[in-house]
Amino acid sequence: IISKINTFDYSIEDSINKSLEDLNTPYIDIMLIHWPIFKTNLENYIDRIIDFKKNNKIKYIGASNFNSYLIKKFRNYCKTEDLFNQIEYHPYINQDKLLNSMEFNEIHPIAYCPLSRGMINKDKSLKELSIKYNKTISQITLRWLYQKGISSVPKSSNQNNIESNIDIFNF
User: Fold this and answer.
1) Quick check: 116 and 92 in contact, CB under 8 A?
2) pTM for the whole thing?
3) What is the pLDDT of residue 10?
4) How far is CA 31 from the centre of its chain?
5) Is 148 helix (H, G, I), strand (E, B) or coil?
6) Which of 64, 127, 136, 151 has a CA that sits 20 to 30 A from residue 6's CA?
7) CA atoms of 52 and 50, how far apart (whole Å)
8) pLDDT of residue 36
9) Half-sphere exposure of 168 (CA within 13 A, CB side)
């Protein structure tokens, strides 16, 4: 379970508590700090999230859309934590500089919009691969991300697509 802190409408603590309540769960696996929306400094955010972590309400701390500069600050402040950064990543966006910074700072990438809002479905090369491997274009793309060491969060409310998106390990 991944959630983002919403400081538009809530304090950090209220946002985390609302996520726990809305998701009807005793803990959140990864709580993301969303940039560029800071209402306080990064260290303050982290300290307040760590309090929830100490109380077993959050397992891991993550970021969303942190650039290379913020990645370095994030890692310097959280020297011993397993960290994550959720970024837009798919076959049509080059994030090599950021991915290299994340690798150097030992921050694991999580791709959002990994299916490029459906643009991949028009790609001839991906279509050829999907035919070759008898898989959907989405499965080909998600497997590519997996092989690059990038976790992904494809959006779908369709049960068949959800199941298909998970079935990427048998080719």
Assistant:
1) yes
2) 0.90
3) 82
4) 10
5) coil
6) 151
7) 5
8) 62
9) 19
Question: What tokens does 77 get?
Answer: 């402040």
Alpha carbon distance 35, 14 (integer Å): 18
DSSP run (H or E) holding 85: strand 83-88
SS3 25: coil
Under a CB-based contact definition with an 8 Å cutoff, are residues 75 and 85 in contact? no
d(CA 167, CA 143): 9
What is the C-alpha separation between 152 and 144, in angstroms, rounded?
10
Distance of alpha carbon 67 from alpha carbon 165, whole angstroms: 28
pLDDT tens figures, 134-145: 999 999 999 999
pLDDT recorded at residue 140 = 97
Q: How far apart are CA 143 and CA 138, in angstroms?
A: 8
Spatial separation of the C-alpha atoms in residues 107 and 74, rounded to whole Å: 9
Half-sphere exposure of 41 (CA within 13 A, CB side): 5
Predicted confidence at residue 42, as pLDDT, reads 86
List the helix and strand counts (H, then E) for the chain.
7, 6
Share of the chain above pLDDT 90, in %: 80
Residue 38: what pLDDT? 67
Q: 């499965």: which residue's tokens?
A: 139
